Amino acid sequence: MEKLSQKRVVMVIAEKDFRDEELFHPKAVLEKEGIKVDVASTTLKAARGSKGGMITPDKLVSDINLADYDALIFIGGSGCRQYWDDQRALGLIKESAARDKITAGICSAGATLALAGVLEGKKATAFSGEADVLRQNGADYTGKPVEVDGNIITADGPASATDFGKAIVKKLKES
Q1: The overall pTM is greater than 0.85
Q2: I need a surface site. Which of 73, 78, 108, 109 has the fewest CB within 10 A?
């Protein structure tokens, strides 16, 4: 636990309609291990999940300094599409992968990683409705609940949210 208490991750959510389980379940898994979790969005106002969960982000996406973090995690839900054309968000994903940091996305956020160009030649999964986006951007879409390829971690959706968190913890233990 001592080693993990030095780790920091940032979870990026949409302003609205992020998928509650995909944020709260992995966040709980990470925090239980002593990992410091920041939540970022495009607003510092309370964000609402698609199931009604509320959280006030700690910081703005525009203020994320990747040097402060061991992992960058994008959370899915229909709201995550706000990042598909967001050059700052896509740039953070590219930079995270280029620095060989843990770069993760769950559900539709797997498509966010694909659109940033970091899944090319990688095994990855996402919400099945985004499989074509992954394939069109060079990913080897597997459809598995959780997929780990190097420091890229993807998951298919809410039912895999806890295992997604566990996969991130396991990778943080290795780093």
Answers
A1: yes
A2: 78
Residue 34 contacts residue 94 (beta carbons within 8 Å): no
Compute the average pLDDT of residues 4-20: 96
Give CA–CA dist 162/43, Å, rounded: 26
Section 129-146 average pLDDT: 98
Set out the domains of the chain in order of their start, with CATH numbers: 4-174 (3.40.50.880)
pLDDT at 2 over 90: no
Question: ∠ CA 130-29-22 to the nearest 5 degrees?
Answer: 25
Q: How far is it, in rounded angstroms, from Cα 173 to Cα 100?
A: 15
Query: In the structure, what pLDDT confidence band is assigned to residue 175 with cuts at 50, 70 and 90?
Result: confident
User: Residue 92: in which H helix or E strand, if any?
Assistant: helix 87-98
> What is the H or E stretch that residue 88 is in?
helix 87-98
Give strand pairing partners of 49.
18
